[in-house]
Each structure stands twice: as C-alpha cells, then as structure tokens.
Amino acid sequence: MSNESVSEHPMIPLEFTTYGAELMEARAREFEALMAKRRSVRDFSPRAVPRALVEAAIRTASTAPSGAHQQPWTFVAISDPDIKRQIREAAEREEYTSYEGGRMPQEWREALAPLGTDWRKPYLETVPWIVVVFQQTYGVNPDGERRTHYYVKESVGIACGLFIAALHNMGLVTLTHTPSPMGFLSQILNRPAHEKPYILFPIGYPEEDAAVPDLERKELEEVAIWFDGEVKGA
Q1: Where are the domains of the chain?
Q2: What is the C-alpha separation between 87 and 229, in angstroms, rounded?
Q3: How big is the CA angle at 184 (ends 179 and 189), to the nearest 5 degrees?
Q4: I need a labelling partner for 100 at 20 to 30 A (CA). Which of 51, 68, 131, 230 fits?
C-alpha cells in the first residue's frame, strides 16, 4: 500500500493505556496464571449459559487482526437440541470411521491415547451451546461479486484463540473439536459455498466431577529462542 493511499484512508487516534513497569509485570503474571489453568474439557454440565456470554466471546474474537481487515470468519452458535443431536450423530459417524475404520493411522491413535478420547462425543448434546467457526474462503459483495480474502486460515486461527481466552476468562470451558471431514457441518447449518468449517467449540460449565488428563506444558526454554540485544529507549 502506498503512502498516498494510507493518507487517504480515514484515521482515528489510537486508544491505548500505558502502565508503569511494575503494574505491567503484575498484569502479565495475573493473566499468565489465569490462562495456565485453561484446559480442554470433555465433561460438561447441562447448566444453562446465557446467550449474552456467548455473544461477548464472539465479539471479543472479532477484535482479532485479519488480513486486509476482511474478518473472514462466521461464528454459528447453536443451542437448539435437535440441531445439536444432528451434529453429534454426524460427528460420531465420521469419528467412528476415523478411530475404528482405519482412517486414523495407528501412530495418531497412540498419540491421542493419553487424552482418553474416542469416537463417542456425548458432550455435543450435553453442552448448552455449540459454536462452529467457519472460514470464509472468499468474500461476497452485496451485488454477488466475489472478493478475494487474504491470510484466511491465519486470521481465523487468531480469532479462535481470542475466543478461547474470552470463554476461560469469564469462567466457561470449551474444547477444540475438529472431526474430519467436517463437511456435514456446512450441510446441517446450511452455510454458503464460500464458508468452510474450521473448528467446533462445545461451550458450557464443567461437570462437578470433571477430570482432565495429567499433562505438563513445555517450559519456556523449550518453546522460545532469544536473540537479545541492547534495549533502546528503555
């Protein structure tokens, strides 16, 4: 984009709060501790979740950066019991073929074994909400003309990360579920051709006796590489 085109685009002042070093570190540690407790949950309570909370999480997700600010995502939220049943039945058919029908390599099954997962997905009917995120492979203008979308997968992935963080922050739990293939979601939810299923989130409260695998996350030294230099302007 040229400087001329940037200058012609409407601009507004940045709304941003700068904190002192001690408060910044405290906020960082507080959020890190909060997110460190986040776990994928498969034991959900049927307890109702207000629609307003799901709406808030979707709005938060939609603050994500996206290629050329095209926001190439659609969040489809389902609380209808009949549609949840249809999704469970279709997901279990695909998952059964993956787990028991030879679609999933043995190495993959062994990697999943510590998580205790199989083709059965009863929580898809137990949870009060299912949110399916679709990636828009291209846009459609009001006149029906196609519009190219850029960095679709990256953009939708960032939005999903914010969605997960928003749910955890408000005291809800979820699971990233990607039955393969996922075309049945397009059919059940009647989505247009330019939208493709990206991920499915069951959303709710954990069951009182919910349990999760005893896992350890990698240490910082295992996931980060540093090229330290002199910090200017500090």
Answers
A1: 41-202
A2: 52
A3: 115
A4: 131
Residue 66 makes CB contacts below 8 A (sequence gap 6+) with 72, 73, 151, 155, 158, 159
CA distance 195 to 135: 5
pLDDT tens column, 103-123: 778 887 777 877 778 888 999
Return the number of other C-beta atoms located less than 10 Å from residue 37's C-beta: 7
pTM to 2 decimal places = 0.90
- Three-class SS state of 184: helix
Closest by CA position to 161, among listed 201, 107, 105 = 201
Helix and strand numbers (H, E) in the chain are: 9, 6
Q: Which amino acid is it at 158?
A: I
Residues facing 130 on adjacent strands: 78, 202
Which of 12-26, 56-70, 102-116 is least confident?
Answer: 102-116
Enter the tokens of residue 148: 């190219």
Which CATH fold topology does 41-202 show?
Answer: NADH Oxidase (3.40.109)
Alpha helices, H only, 79-223? 81-100, 106-112, 123-126, 152-169, 183-188, 220-223
DSSP designation for 144: S
Q: Which of 119, 91, 86, 54 is nearest to 189 (CA)?
A: 86
DSSP designation for 8: H
Tokens 């009949």 -> residue: 82
